[in-house]
Fold:
Amino acid sequence: MKILIADDSRVMRQIVIRTLRQAGHGGHEIVEAENGREALELVHTEAPDLVLSDWNMPEMNGIDCLAALRAAGSTVAFGFVTSEGSDEMRQRADAAGAAFLIAKPFTPEAFDDALRSVL
Amino acid sequence: MTPELDDVLAVTEDVWTALLGETAPLVPRGVPAGTPFDATGAWSAATTVSGGWPGVVTVELDETVARQLTARMLDLPADATGDGDIADAVGELVNMVGGNIKSLMPGPSVLSLPSVAAGRAAFASDVVEACRLDLLWQGAPLRVSVHVPA
Structure:
């Protein structure tokens, strides 16, 4: 499986990759994007099976990226990894077509549960 | 409306444990009101919440703490981290603390991207301190503060 990780923080991308490994999902191919616009382009060129995206990013945020993907007909599985885990944000993510929202700080178990829902 | 100090402490401890793993505890530190953050070398980061609840969440860290936090987040030796890494890590720290505090307050609100600086934080004249948490980690200081419009 190919996973696209979109986050403007290189540190957080590293933590997400490490947490995937700790959750037993270390064997996947990883592609990285620094913002939503880059993620949007990479979905088209790399055809990932899953996008794990931050919400707040420069250039294009995660929710706008998801909206652009769906508007373009993409059905790629998309989950948020964000510091904002309120009910309001979860409802917005769900309404936009996200499969899940993992709130930071997170655990390997949270990643495992979320990934199992889309694998 | 301002966040409860206990909630800010719980958020900070959760984020700290998640980023650093099992580590030395954060210890409360008595600091008189109005005292600027007093680390010799410091890093600071802030994020602004606007909308249903307006506020500014700021984190200030002793430089040693910032470097060790960064090293732990990147899984590198402390002396292998550069200023860019530290800015990234401290920004992510305030993003997590700020995002979780935002989730506790009335919405809908928007969280800004973090701004990070080498040095202690400077605050705008149109905000007042609503809540401040002074802590020690391995003997070095850090501070989390919340400011709201005056």
